[in-house]
Fold this sequence. Notes:
Chain A is α/β, with parallel strands linked by helices. Chain A contains 19 helices and 24 strands. In chain A, helix 5 runs parallel beside helix 6 (183-200), helix 13 packs across helix 14 (453-466) and helix 13 (438-448) packs parallel to helix 15. Chain B folds into two domains: 3-45 and 175-368; 52-153, abc type-2 transporter like domain (abc type-2 transporter like fold), CATH 3.40.1710. Chain B is elongated and about 95 Å long. The interface between A and B is medium-sized, with 37 and 27 residues.
Amino acid sequence: MPPGVDPPEAEPAPALRCVDVRRSFRIGKRVVVALDGINVEARRGGVTGLIGPDAAGKTTLMRLAAGLLLPDSGRIEVLGIDVARDPLAVQARVGYMPQHFGLYEDLSVRENLDLYADLQGVAPAERPARYAELLHMTGLGPFTGRMAGRLSGGMKQKLGLACTLVQPPELLLLDEPTVGVDPVSRRELWQIIDHLTRGLRTTVLFSTAYLDEAERCDTVLLLHEGKLLGSGPPREISGAMEGRSFHAVASLGRRQLQERLASLPWVMDAVIQSGGVRVVTATRTAPDPASVWPPVPDLRFTPVPARFEDGFVARLNDTMGRTAPSSPASAEGGLRAALPPPAQDGEVIVVEHLTRRFGDFTAVDDISFGVRRGEIFGLLGANGAGKSTTFRMLCGLLPPTSGRLRVAGFDLRTAAAPVRGRIGYMAQKFSLYGDLSVAQNLRFFASAYRLRGARRAERIAWASEEFELAPMQDATARDLPLGFKQRLALACALMHEPEILFLDEPTSGVDPLGRREFWRRINGLAELGVTVLVTTHFMEEAEYCDRLAIMAQGRVLSAGTPEAIKATARTASRPDPTMEDAFIAVIEAADNRGLAA
Amino acid sequence: MNQVAFRRLRGLLRKEFLQIWRDPSALAIAFLLPAVLLLIFGYGVSLDARNVPLALVVQRPGALAASFTSAFARSPYFRPRAFLDIQQAERAMQAREVKGVVWLPSDFARRAEHGGNSPIGVIVNGVDANDARLIEGYVQQVWATWLTAEARAQGQASPTPLSAQPRVRFNPAVSSRNYLVPGLIAVIMTLTGALLTALVIAREWERGTMEALMVTRVAMREILLAKLVPYFLLGMGGMAASVAMAVLLFGVPLVGAWWVLAGASALFMLAALGMGLLISSFARNQFVAGQIAIIVTFLPAFLLSGFVFDIGSMPRVVQWITHVVAARYFVAILQSVFLAGDVWSVILPNALALAVMAVLFLGLARAVFHRRLD
C-alpha cells in the first residue's frame, strides 16, 4: 500500500475523526460502555493528548484508531481513511505503541529493533543509519546487547518507542507511555516527542492519566467514563480558570486549613501545596478571608496561575454535579478516641538498613527512615523503585534479607503477629472479593479481624455510613466504579481501627475528584493520630504528605518534608521548583555520584 | 512471496527460535516432559501381572499338594505364601497382603487319586478388576499345566479333554510396555503440539506483543506460519527423542519403516498444532490456554485414543466421540508401525483421517485469526 498523497490544494484530512463512535464490551454478563458517542477531530501535526482517568475510554479509542477494534456504531477515520473499511491502509501509515510497550523481553534491544524493522519492511541498506538515529535519540546505544526484560521501565518505554519509529510513521499512537515511569524518563520521552513533531512533522496521539502532561500537548481531548468532556488547546481549558486560583497560607496546620477551606461554598477545589493550600474559587471572585468559619486570623491569599487540572476539575464538577464534600475528619467518631501510647517516643515505624534481594536482584537496597505517629509519610518513585517491596516487608508479608524493622514497637522478625493486628493494608490491586457484595465484603473483613457480635455490627455500621457505602450495599464489589472500590477497600482496611495504615498506590487511575475525596479521608485519619504510609507516583500527591522519601532503584535518594526536598532543586533560574523538578534533580545528582564513584 | 514478505517471515521465525532457545520452558515441554512421561510409563506403569502375592491354603499337606504348590512357586507370575486355613488367607486378602487365594480342600489328594477330578477353590480380589481377571487366567493356566504334568507323570491321558494353545502375534512377549510406549508418543505429541502453541501465543497476548505485531505490516498468515514452523520442528524433535528412548531404552521393537512413522507423525503434528492455534485464538492468557489445551486435547488423547483403554469396549456414544480425537488415528498407526509393521490397510485410512483433521484445524485457525482484538 503506497502512502496516501493528499491533493495539494485540499486541506489534508484530519489525523483522527470520530463520528458518533460507540463501543461497548461484554464482561461476563455485564455490558460496559467504553465509548459513548464520541464526536471529535484531531488535526494533523503536533501532539493531541487523550486525557482521562482509568476507564475513560482512552485505550479503546487508541485501539479503534489502530484498527484493532471495530466500533459498534459510528465512523472512525484516521488520516482520511475509514479504519473499519481499510485497516491495513491505516496500519501501513501509523505507528502504535500499546501499553507495556509491546516488547519481547527475552530478545535483546538490537534483536527487538531487527524484528520490527523486518516487520515494517525497512530495507537492510537503510537500517544502519536509522538504528544509529534511533539509538542516539533514545540513548539506548550502549545497551544494544541487553535483553529487553533487563531494562529499566524508562528504557523499555524508549525501546518500545524506537521499535514503533523504525519506519517513520505519519501518525504515532502512544497508549499511556508514561504510566509508572520515572520523571527523568518522562521528560526525555517528551523531548523525543517534541523532536518528532517539530522536526519531522509527525502527528502524535498521546494518552495519559497524568493531568500535568496535558499542558505539553497542542490539543487535548478530555475523556471521562466514555464521554468527551471537552477538547481544544490546553490553555483554553485552563484559561477559563484564570483569576480563580489562589495560594492560601496561615499559621494553621495545612490539613486543618484545607479542611476548613474545602467546606466553603465559594471554594471549588482546595488541595495542599507548598506549605499552604491551593484554592480554586467557584466563580471569578476574589476570596474573602472573613467568610472562613471558624475564623483563621492570619489567612492570606495570593493569586497563582491556573493550571490544566483546575479546568478538568471544573468540567468534572459540571458534568457530575458538585457534591458537597463531607468532612470525614469530624465524623470519624468511630475511630479509637485514645490510641495506645506509641512504644517509642514519636516514631512508630523505624527502618534501619533494610535490604531485600531476590536472587541476584536487589529490590530494596539499604534504606533507613522513621515515621512519627500521626504523620503521613510518602514513598515516591517509579515502578520498580522498590516501594511495594518495602511495604510488604513493613506489613510482615515478606521477610527482609537484612536490616532492622520496628513497627508499633515490635520487631517484625520476631513478632509479626501482634503487629498485623495494629496495621491496615490496602494493596495496589483491588484485593477484595469481587464476587461478594459490598455488605458481604465488610462482614467478611470484620470477621477476618476477629470482630464479634455488637462490636462487629457497630464497625460495619460505621464503615457503611462513614464511606457512604449504604446505597451500594448489595452491589457486587467487582461491578463498583473505581472510586467506590477504593472506598470499600479503605473501609475494609480500617475495620479493626488500625493505628498504622499502609496504602500502596491507592489513587492510581482514579479521577481527580475521586483522588481528592480519598485524600480528605486520609487527612482526617491522620488528624486523629493514625499513622499513614502511602506510595504514589503522582508528584502532586507527594505534596500532601508531611514527609516523604524519594526512591529509585531500591534506594532512598532523598527524604524530608516536601518543602525541604523541593528546596534542594532551587536554582537562580528556577526559584520555585515543582516536586517533579526536585525528583529529577535528586535522580540526576544520584547518577552523577554513581558516575563519580 | 516477495522479498519484503519473506523478510517479515524470516524475522518472525528468528524471533521465535531465539525465544525457544532463551526460555527453557518450551524446550522443557518438548523434551523433558516426554522423557519424564516415558520413564513413568515405561518403568512405573505396567498392565502385566508379575510376582503377584498369592495365598495358597493347603489344608492337608501331602506329596500331591506339595507338587501343586511348587508349580505356583515356579511360575514367574506368582509369589505364593502358604496358609493353613482359609480364614487367615481371607484376612490377608482384606489387608491387601495378597491379591488372591488358591485353596486346596482337605479331600484334594483323595479326589485326585480317585476319579482324577479334584476341584480347587480360587478367590480373587475384585477391587482391581483388571488384575482380578489376569490372576484368574494365570491361576487356570498354572493349574492346567500342573494337571497335564501330573497326568503325564502317572502315565494317564490329559484330564482336560481340550486345551487351547494361545499364540500371541505382533507382541510375542505380551508386554504392555510395548503397546503403551507407542501410544504414549501420541499423547506426548499432542502435548507439545497443542499445549506449546497455545501457551506461546497466549504469552504474546498477555505481554501485549500480539497487539503490537498486528499494527505492523505483517500478515496474519505470516504470524501463524511463524508459529507453525518452529513448533512443528520442536514437536518432531520431541517425537524423535521419544522414539529413540522407546527403542533404545525400553527395547520396544520398531517393525515398520521409519519414514512411515515420520510421515504419520508429521500429519498428526500439524493437526495438533492446528488445535493449539485454534485454542489460542480465544484463550488470551497462559493459564486459560493451558487449562483448555489439557481438557480438549491432552485428556481426550489420554483417555479416548485407545492408547490405554480399548475403544472397542467403550459405550457406543463414546466410541462415536473418539472419531473426533485425532490421537485415535495416530495411536492406531503407531501401534501398527511399531509392533506389526507397515500394515497399509491400517495406516492409509488412519493417515487420511489425520490429514483431514490437520486441514480442518489449520483451516479453522486461519479463519478465526484476524487482525483485531475482539
